[in-house]
Structures are given as C-alpha cells and as structure tokens.
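User: structure tokens for Pentatricopeptide repeat-containing protein, chloroplastic, please.
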Amino acid sequence: MAALLYFPKISSEVTSSHFLSLSPMDLRRLSRASYLFTRRLKSIEYARKSFHTSPYLQQQLHRPDKSEEASSDRHLRERLSAALSRRSLDYEQCKQLITILSPHEFDRLFPDFRSKVNPKTALDFFRLASDSFSFSFSLRSYCLLIGLLLDANLASPARIVLIRLINGNVPVLPSANDSRDSRFAIAEAMASLSLCFDQEIRSKMSDLLIGVYCTQLNRAGCYLALDIFPLLASKGMFPSKTTCNILLTSLVRAKEFQKCCEAFEVVCKGVSPDVYLFTTVINAFCKSGKVEEAIELFSEMEEAGVAPNVVTYNNVIDGLGMSGRYDEAFMFKEKMVEKGVEPTLITYSILVKGLTKAKRIGDAYCVLKEMTEKGFPPNV
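Assistant: Done. Predicted tokens:
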C-alpha cells in the first residue's frame, strides 16, 4: 500500500505512449503495487473457499443456539412420550421417529418420560427399531427398559431382553470403554439407573442380573456375578436373600469356598442372613476343612436368633466326621434332637460311613440300629 502513495496520477485517457514516458522508478513502483494487489486478491479468494469448504466453520454457522436446541429436544421428547405411552405400537409413527432419531438422543431423553411409558409398547418399539432398522440403543436404554418391564411385573420379557443383550444378539451403541467386558458394562449401566427406581425394583434388577449370570454363564457367570456384586451393593441394589444364596451356592459348587465366604461378608452388609445363607457358608467352611470356622458361624447363627435346620446340622456333622472328630459329631446329632430337629437318612448315613471308615464298627452298628428303629432302611 505504501507504493501506491508514490504512484503517479494517470487519467482514464492515458495511452501506451504515456507508459513509455514513465521513468524507471515509476515502473518499479507500478510493478510492486500490482504484485501486492494480486496477492491480496488471492488471499481473499482462498479465505472465501476455505469458509465454504471447512466443516467446522459450516457447523458453527448453522449451529442452533441453546434455545433452539431446547425447543427441538422438547418437541422430540413429546413425540417419543406420545408414541411410547400408547396402549399399542403405531408402526408408521414410530418408523418416522426412528428415521429422525439418534441413539444418543434417545439415551438422553428416555429417562425424562419413563414414568409415562407403557412397558409393552416400549418393548415393541425396541424390537422394531433394532430388528427392522438396526437401531443401536445404548446399554443404559436397554437397562432402563428392563427396569420398566420388571416394574410392570413382566419378568419373563425382561429376562429375554437381558439374555439377548448378554449374548450380543441386539445392536448396541458403542461406548467409550469398549475394551471392558461387555457383561460388566451391563452391570455398570444398570447401577447407573439406581436413582430411577425404588428399592423393590432395584432389588429385582439385581436379582435378574445375578440370577442370569449364575444360571446362564456357568462358572464364568459365578465369577462375574461375584465381581459385580460390590458394584451393585454400592448403589443400594442389594439382591434378595434367595438370589444371594444362588450366588453362594454356585460358588460352593465351583469349589470356590474362600470366595463364597468373602461374598457372604458383602451380603451381610445389605441383608440379614437367613438359615439358607448361613447353612451355605457353613457348608463352604466344612468342605474346605475349616470346621472351627463352621462351628463358630453356627454359634453366631444361633445368637442371631436363626434356628439351624437339618441341613445345617448335617453339614457340621459331615465336616466333623471328615476331620475324624466323631465324638463331637455325635454330640451335634444329640443336640439337633434336643432342639426338635429330627435326623434324616442323610444324617445317619454320614455317621455310619464315617465310623466305618474309622473302623469304629461297634459305634457304626449302634447308629444302624437306631436308624432302623426310626424306620429308615439301611442303605450303607
């Protein structure tokens, strides 16, 4: 621009002869000004093209303000709420929704209108979207659906949804932590919804999850159920006593006696142990050779006001017998009779086998005689 200040004034009628009369200094100034002007034009053209081709700039240009986004969310939420609160699914209405809906949007909006949802209609919507349109719902959306189904006493459909989710039979929205075990991620998603449901439904959700893991995934499922138990417990999602016992029994069957005892300690933080939970852990102690711990837990059980049953006594008697402590085993048999718990065929069989193995034939014969008098056929 500085060169233009020295550029000689030339009228519009100037001819080529005038240029020929310019001094060398004027020509150099003219050349310099032309170069600068050309560069300026190229810069402007480049900026114009960059603006039209830059995705970021285009996104910022067309990005709606917060009020527009809120209005759009509210409109979409209302449409979803209306569609999923119907008594039956409107195919055409839902088809239109699916075409304009993203999995992230559904995941964000679904919890807002969950109280208005008809669980059966929502289930049909999920089936339609995933099976016909390969729509990938998030894990959280699936877990919220499971909770709504359980709240409506639709346990069977909820179980089917969970099993399909575990087996990878439905498209799922990828998460930022895809390196984790997807089955653990399901538990995390379920735990994140703890505030969406009351204690009864939270318990049903953990019952379903732990029950399916223990029964559908065999030994691996037991370990996984044990891993997710503290996570669920930290969110106040304690399973029922029945489900806790399923977990402990599964660990005993897998010969994970120490893990069973550790799980029992976690269980006791959320539920009051009953006779079945105590008995399962006593069995774990006896099978692992920790008879003293079994007897100690037996005493704690009585102090807690929980009456041992015949299975509890049989476990302790068997544990004492395997440790060669037959006199104490007899004492426990007498104790159960005093407490009004009748010995069973299993009780007598445990004693006879143990005494015979220890070559205490006379004692074994006395037990057989009592067994026959009680009406049990000798089968040992």
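User: Anything notable?

Assistant: Residues 280-380 form a domain with the Serine Threonine Protein Phosphatase 5, Tetratricopeptide repeat fold (CATH 1.25.40.10).
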